[in-house]
Each structure stands twice: as C-alpha cells, then as structure tokens.
Amino acid sequence: KNYLYAPLQKAGPLVKIDGNTGEEIFTYNKSNPDSVVHLGQKLLILSKEIVCLVNEENGVEEWSADIKDNQSMMVVQNDQLYIHNTRLKRVIRLDIKNGKEIWIKDDKSLHKSTSLFGCNENVLIHSSGGLVCGISTKDGSVIWSKEYSMSGRGSHVNVFFSGGFVWVHQMQYSKDANV
Fold it and tell me: What's phi and psi for 14, nearest 5 deg?
C-alpha cells in the first residue's frame, strides 16, 4: 500500500491517509507530531516533549519517553534513536526496541541552530555555526570537531552526511570577487 502520514490541521493528531485515494484510514489520537519516522510496521513519533513508538496498523503505543524539550530533532540508525534536545543542549541515545535510555551527553556546542545530519554505526554528525562534530554512538563523547567558514549568514545547510563521509562546503573569499 501507499500511505501518507501527516497531521491534517495545525497542532492536530497524525493521520494515516491512503496515498492513492486520499481516504483517511486511521487517526493516531494521542499524537501531535513534530517529526515522524516510518519503521516498517512501526511509527516513531516525536511530539513536543515525548517520543513514542506506535504500531502503524492500530496506533497502540509500545513505549514512550519524556525527552524534556519541545524543540527536538531525531536521527535513527539501526535499532538506535538519537535525539538532539536543543533547550538542554544534549544528545540522548535510546534503544528503539524498548525506549530505554542508553546515554545522555551534554554539550555546550549544541544549541537551537544545531542540526543532526545522520550517523553510521560509529559516529553521529552534528553541525552548528561554523563547527561540525563527530560524536561517538557508543558513549556520546566528541570524537572529532572541525571549524569551517560559512556561506550565507551562518546557515548550517553547507554540511552534508552521505555514504559515510561528511561534506563541508567551505567558502573561499577573495578581494577580487565581483560578488
């Protein structure tokens, strides 16, 4: 089947929609999603200060965890979930199978404009305002960090994580440039 998962109203619950007909199939009443990840027959839903795993067919919640932040973002790798908690400047690693916390790491370089870009089995990549870091997926420690110059008013869209590589567009300034 071809399904779409989206809230149909501002601050509304997540709705499962048939992508071919537009028919509303199911409403996940307990949700108010900021982010949703489809994991086969499960949905990982990030809603304000809660992240939960629900059964995609019937909406039954398998587990939920309080992440204590209403402006978080998440990245999934294998059976692990990494959540960037912007207000408390931390990254949290949870086991997707049961929602149990594996580690929490506070880091002053994490803030509202920080983006999590992705991860592999060993490293989680984040970037914020001219700094890109690799964080250990095992314990949350910073493995490496590099400063770089930004193009475009401090935007962090110049960092990409693909194929196990971190790509950074580093702007070169020239006195002779006519731009």
Answer: -70, 135
Neighbours of 75 (CB within 10 A): 20
Q: Identify whether the C-beta of residue 109 lies closer than 8 Å to the C-beta of residue 140.
A: no
How many Å apart are CA 86 and CA 68, to the nearest integer? Answer: 10
What confidence tens digit (pLDDT) does each residue in 116-171 have?
667 888 888 877 767 778 889 999 998 988 887 655 554 444 555 555 555 555 55
Three-class SS of residue 140? coil
Determine the Cα–Cα distance for residues 142 and 20; give it in Å rounded to an integer. 45
Q: What angle do CA 31, 34, 36 make, to 5 degrees?
A: 75
Identify the bridge partners of residue 116 per DSSP, sorted by sequence position.
126
Pull the structure tokens for residue 78: 């294998």
Which pTM was predicted? 0.74
The C-alpha torsion from 104 through 71 and 107 to 137, rounded to 10°, is: 50
With 0-12 / 13-18 / 19 or more C-beta atoms within 10 angstroms meaning exposed / middle / buried, residue 135 is buried
The rounded distance, in Å, linking the Cα atoms of 99 and 48 is 16
Residue 39 and residue 53: Cα distance in Å, rounded? 9
Separation of alpha carbons 95 and 63, rounded Å: 11
Residue 102's H or E segment, with its range, is: strand 101-106
